[in-house]
Amino acid sequence: MTRHSSLSSTPCGSLKGTFKVPGDKSISHRSLMFGALAVGETRVFGMLEGEDVLATAKAMAALGAKIHRDDDGVWHVEGRGIGGLCEPEDVLDMGNSGTSARLLMGILGSHPITTFMTGDASLRKRPMGRVADPLAEMGAQVSCRSGQRLPLMVRGAATPMPIRYKLPMASAQVKSCILLAGLNTPGETTVIETEHTRDHTELMLRHFGAEVRVVQTKEGRETTIVGQPELVAADVLVPSDPSSAAFPTVAALINPGSELRLPGIGMNPHRNGIYITLKEMGADITLENERTEAGEPVADLVIRASKLKGISVPAERAPSMIDEYPILAVAAAFAEGKTVMHGLGELRVKESDRLSAVANGLKACGVTCEEGEDFLIVEGNGSAPLGGGTITTHFDHRIAMSFLVMGMAAQQKVTVLDAEAIDTSFPGFATLMNGLGAGIS
Ligand code: S3P
């Protein structure tokens, strides 16, 4: 991957049209992993073909699954069955993708094989102790570089032990890692969370025939996987990604006269915090044709340019919009008044330290903001910020897209560095946005 190529976004007029947002990243990863563990052939419709998901596809193929994409864009995964993965001959490269690395470590933790794993410069900085620790309790051996970083080695347990594990942080990746290790573990493995994170793993495991029980107790939400089921191949329909959809949504809200329709957006209640928040800020967003597709709630979104006002976003909402704070901060820069965002500690360990990357980007565009250890306050005055900044993205796709959206409606163009990072989650972003009237080049 070449680095340092920049993109600039110039103030454009209104955005209009219908826009097919690519498939959900979280669901795409899981469809490949669970398909590889199922017996039979899983077909995946609408899969995100971004670099992160392609890293998962390559890894699952190296572990023995047969994976191919047909001419109609449907992905076919011939699974090995639980416990049936084989030792890869080479190091698995998870690229930029924390979800690939952490979920796969769970699967490997209860397979009696030895695997080496690495990633790009950003992923090699991210903490892996949060998954290595519970996997060690289950009997896996995980040896990481200092600071519990990648590259690392997983030697899966030959006789894994089920655990009951209380999550020390709100993380669907850690929850999923443990549940996936529990798949090839006799008995029942339970994860307890005090904040409800995205539940795509639970929903899709059930879709493939596993028994997943969820109960609410005094300790929190307890999710239990009954070990060693036979997963049966199933078709997966991937909805459009609500996290990716947030970028055109905010672009339409802040460009006067805009009207966009985004069909088939995933509206899982543990992912839709950004839409609730934007509506509280005064956004004109309508949900049409609400329906359920392959177990996931989906709707068509209609977004019209709106006058936004600053609000306080409660910390409890963070798990349902954890990836959306960068673009929310851009919306807040156009709103009238202060937007206060709490509970952002996890943003420090994403593809970049997103809290400081956002704050620095806003300041470079003339926006007043305050960065705290786990909060961000953005002050808008109800008109377009100055813009004109050059943004260091730290190779973080969501920082890149957020500031390109800023440039579409700021007074002066905004330039983002390392814009190729966008391909990890939203290939074709610039072309699609330009098709609606944006000026990204
Ligand atoms: C994801 C969970 C979240 C999110 C990431 C995708 C998943 O990470 O930020 O983009 O697919 O489970 P954390 O579990 O670290 O919060």
UniProtKB/TrEMBL annotation:
Task: Note the CDD domains from the entry.
Answer: EPSP_synthase
Originating gene: aroA
Location(s) in or outside the cell = Cytoplasm
Entry's HAMAP family? EPSP_synth
Q: What is the protein's known function?
A: Catalyzes the transfer of the enolpyruvyl moiety of phosphoenolpyruvate (PEP) to the 5-hydroxyl of shikimate-3-phosphate (S3P) to produce enolpyruvyl shikimate-3-phosphate and inorganic phosphate.
Organism, as annotated: Kiloniella laminariae
Transferase recorded as keyword: yes
Q: What Enzyme Commission number(s) does the record list for this chain?
A: 2.5.1.19
Report the sequence similarity comment from the record.
Belongs to the EPSP synthase family.
- The question of whether NADP is a record keyword is answered with no
The subunit field of the Swiss-Prot or TrEMBL record says: Monomer.
The pathway where this protein functions is: Metabolic intermediate biosynthesis; chorismate biosynthesis; chorismate from D-erythrose 4-phosphate and phosphoenolpyruvate: step 6/7
UniProt-recorded name of the protein: 3-phosphoshikimate 1-carboxyvinyltransferase
Task: Provide the binding site for 3-phosphoshikimate.
Answer: 25-26, 30, 171, 173, 323, 350
